[in-house]
Specification:
By secondary structure, the protein is α/β, with parallel strands linked by helices. The chain is 53% helix and 14% strand. The protein is built from eleven helices and six strands. It has a six-stranded mixed β-sheet. Helix 2 runs parallel beside helix 8, helix 3 packs antiparallel against helix 4 and helix 8 crosses helix 9. The chain starts with a strand and ends with a helix.
Amino acid sequence: MQANPRTIDALFNSQLRYVVPMFQRLYVWEEIPQWSTLWEDVAEKADLQIAQTKTTPHYLGALIIEGVRPSSPREVKRFLLIDGQQRMTTLQLLLCAFRDFARRSEWRTLDRATTRYLENSDSDVMERPEEEVYKLWPTALNRDVFRGILSAGSKTEVEKKFPLIKLPRKRKPELRSNLVEGYLYFSRMIEEWVGQVATTAGKSPEDCAFALLQALQQDFCVVEIALAEGDDSQEIFYSLNSQGRPLSQSDLLRSLIFMRAERERHDR
C-alpha cells in the first residue's frame, strides 16, 4: 500500500480511468453540505489566485484505488475506485461545468485544458471507446446520466436532456438526479463568481476563469492510497464501512461477488 498526495491535475491529466465498482452506492452528495462547502473552498482559493497571494494545498480527503491488469493492449489503464467515488464524481461535475462555461464563452485554451481532465484522447484506438473515453466511469445506475452530462457540451443541452417534470396535481416538480443538480449548481456558481470578480477586480472574465482553473489545478489535493497486489481490497472495504450501520451478510456477499466481477471483467 502506497500513499501519496495528488493534485487534481495529477489525478486526471494522464491517460487513465477510474472505475466505480458495482458494490458502491449511487451518487448521493447534495448542495448542503457537500457542494456548497467545496465551492466555498474553491472560491476562496481562486480569490487568492486573483490577488496573487501564496496559497497552501487544501486536502479533500483520501482516495483508495486498486490497479487492474488490462484485458487488452488497447485498453486504457484502469483503476478500481475502492473509496472516494463521491468526491471524485463531484470534481468531475465541477470540471465539466467549468469546461462548458469556457466553451460557451469561446475560451478555447480553457476548453481544451479542462477537456483533458474529463476525457481520454485517441478514442479510435481504444478497446471500448464508449466507456474508456471517460476519466471516471460510475456505477451502472449512474452511467447514463453521467455520460449524458459530459457529452451534452453545454448547460442548455443538459437542461434539455434532463428537464424538470411537473406531474398533475403536484406543486413541485419531480426531483432530478443528484448528478444533474450538482452540475447545474456548479454552473451557476462559476458564472456568478466570474462575473462578480471581473467587476470587483477589474480583470477580464477570461483572466478570472484562468485563476479559477489554476486554483483547481494547484490548490486542491487528495491523499491517493494505491493498493499493492497483496493488499486485500475486500477487507479494506469492510474496514471503511464498519462505522455506523453494520453491513448485512447480503451486503458482504454482494460486495465480494461484485469485487471479483470487476477484476475479471464480468461486469457487462
